[in-house]
Amino acid sequence: MSEKATILVQLDTDAQPSVFDRVVAVDAGVQHLFSYGGVSPQTVMPLVHGCIFTRGGKDLARTAIFIGGSDVTAGEAVLSEVKKHLIPQYGLSVSVMLDSNGSNTTAAAAVRAAGRHLDLSSAKSLVLGGTGPVGQRVARLLAKVGGHVRIGSRQKDRAEAVCAVIRAHIPGANIEAVSVSSSTDGPQALGDRNLVVAAGALGVVMLPKKLWTTAKALRVAIDLNGVPPAGIEGIELNDKGVERDGVISYGALGIGGTKMKVHKAAINKLFETNNAVLDIEEIYALALHLQ
Amino acid sequence: MSEKATILVQLDTDAQPSVFDRVVAVDAGVQHLFSYGGVSPQTVMPLVHGCIFTRGGKDLARTAIFIGGSDVTAGEAVLSEVKKHLIPQYGLSVSVMLDSNGSNTTAAAAVRAAGRHLDLSSAKSLVLGGTGPVGQRVARLLAKVGGHVRIGSRQKDRAEAVCAVIRAHIPGANIEAVSVSSSTDGPQALGDRNLVVAAGALGVVMLPKKLWTTAKALRVAIDLNGVPPAGIEGIELNDKGVERDGVISYGALGIGGTKMKVHKAAINKLFETNNAVLDIEEIYALALHLQ
Amino acid sequence: MSEKATILVQLDTDAQPSVFDRVVAVDAGVQHLFSYGGVSPQTVMPLVHGCIFTRGGKDLARTAIFIGGSDVTAGEAVLSEVKKHLIPQYGLSVSVMLDSNGSNTTAAAAVRAAGRHLDLSSAKSLVLGGTGPVGQRVARLLAKVGGHVRIGSRQKDRAEAVCAVIRAHIPGANIEAVSVSSSTDGPQALGDRNLVVAAGALGVVMLPKKLWTTAKALRVAIDLNGVPPAGIEGIELNDKGVERDGVISYGALGIGGTKMKVHKAAINKLFETNNAVLDIEEIYALALHLQ
């Protein structure tokens, strides 16, 4: 019999499964996409069993699971539950990828872009909107590579919570929480930074132009906000490594091209084996190897 | 890279996305269909963003949105919200079609059929079930072409409300509401009419045979009820321009063939550009140009 | 025009439509799969109308309905409602298959396997977990063929209820309910049995090894539990007619291969005509004719 069709089972923690993730799956070449919304750990078991008990042997690599949705914490809980119901000791397993809100693929693409211009192992970074799904992952990757990372949030206690989570993953991470709620917070947070990444909510200008154009140490600015106005004022959606006032800048669509390649590469990697688990580290490693 | 697969994102305001619309999409040649039920204006934004932020340039024309469901008003609210989240000034847009309950395509097909036998600019029409999704659109098209239109309903105040909506779209529309609740209402409403269209609820006989066979001015009778018994007694499901007692008659399946062609043509039109908006007028224009 | 694509409309009574059934549908060659969760008799009508009013003539055989979900009774209610909305007298019909929780295909495969080693018309059987979706159907098929069947359950009144349902389908069925709640129940229930089938809940050992290896009349043991531990201790997932302590044994994956073939054959049968109804008897007949 000829090779079986590829099936991607999309487990989304939001009520409506992401259109974005579905389009990317189709464009990555997935033949059949089974999309589920409102997925929680309580509803995972039969979905996983349906993956592992239907195909046998090497055909199991033709089925895979994608976990998405706007809430990274919810996505991580689903991933953890998915793993419980795989039975790899009997060969009953499929590959799984976590990319809640595009957090892993966007973060990997953004950090890859920054790494082209800076030595990230010693760079000083500021992640604005660092408590959001993408911001958390950007901060985690930057911390892992070894530089000093500031996580900015309008609610400093939320930034502290994110720092704690990252330290649990990366003991000794060089990371701190800063408040960016008042007009004087910005300059202070940005002070000695070489890199700023804005990963905040849509429609919020997080960094006025006069602030970042006067930040002396700043070399790279990355804005991940896809809907105008830009999170970093003055950066254009399509910026991709252009220099603006001496700072190399990237807009959401500029990063988006790489993010798409990473996302599609990760989906295709799922179908190479039946036991891959693609989370932030694996996806970043994949990003580094892309052309 | 070769051309991307076509993707139709079906936004249905009912809990279960319409099987009917899905079958037609498949038969129109759509390659990937993403179906969402329970869509309301509150849930539209991420669905639209997923359409416009995934593909670039001319590939955006390979993604489109279809709005359906049994409630035309709810569908119109979703269409209005979809438009808010398109960003055409940045080229970030996809084509959209509204066809809640098949209202636009069925109405366009029915009025096209009537126009083959009558000069609609001067014809006198009665739309039974004129407050339903299809009836409203039939009445609106007939009013736009210029004839005199009566909207019949068992609840006259509901018919008055529909008249008000149509007048808002077509100032000076020659249109009136009539009650069809008692046994004497029917003959009176039908009196001088050249055309009667029945677009009422399933299983309700709206016009007994003895009534319409004695209506002197009547030339065309169209019954859009697809489940026996017929809404206009004596008309058969498959009638397509046959004469019955001197009246040219169409049944639901007789109109249905044209409706299907209009529906499929409209879906294919969506993929020609990334900025079409197909509502009743555009779909009727399309119907007139079909072979 | 060339032949239309095959469409399978999956009506699942669980909130999330079964991944298992979707994978099998894809592997059976279905081209488009429309999956609905949370289906109840109240939501069936428009789904059926969408099937029968979209394609005409012989193209209707290219659309079919599959009813699934974990609750057989709910699935039967949906099947009954689906039939009400088909209009075969006008040729407006599509084929339908019921396989809630794989009950029909698994039961057909299990009974077919048993029939290779035993004369089922005179065999004495015990069905453990006989009140579950699969167990009910196994018992019904065995009763129909004519042997004596015991339905074991930890709650004897539930087993009595299943007996009543089976007697309603098969008048004079040679069937009885037994309790298997205490440690002495097992040996008594198993006493003179030639066949034991375990179809209980996941993770529950229903029959300890020392019990069945000392049951003198026992010739065939079938365990339908797909997740370790086995429901019949000592039987392996992949057992397929191997002898263990003098008993021919089948595990869930051993039966599963046949179940898959039956399941796929049934789906393909749906697309041969537009009026087949595939329930347990039709699916068992199909199983008997497979190579």
Please render the helix and strand layout as text.
Three copies of one chain form a homotrimer.
Chain A: E1 7-12, H1 19-27, E2 32-36, H2 44-52, E3 63-68, H3 72-85, E4 95-98, H4 103-115, E5 124-128, H5 133-145, E6 148-153, H6 156-169, E7 175-179, H7 185-190, E8 195-198, H8 209-212, E9 220-223, E10 240-244, E11 247-250, H9 252-270, E12 277-278, H10 280-289
Helix pairs in contact in A: 2-3, 4-5, 4-9, 4-10, 9-10
Task: Find the CATH superfamily of the largest domain in chain A.
Answer: NAD(P)-binding Rossmann-like Domain
Query: Shape of chain A from CA axes?
Result: elongated
Largest sheet of chain A: 7 strands, mixed
Task: Specify the CATH architecture of the largest domain in chain A.
Answer: 3-Layer(aba) Sandwich
**Low-pLDDT windows of residues of chain A:** none
Strand runs of chain A, count: 12
Give the helix proportion of chain A (percent range).
25-40%
Stated plainly, the CATH topology of the largest domain in chain A is called Rossmann fold
Features:
38% helix; 291 residues; 2 domains; alpha/beta; Rossmann fold; homotrimer; 7-stranded mixed sheet; 12 strands; 5-stranded parallel sheet
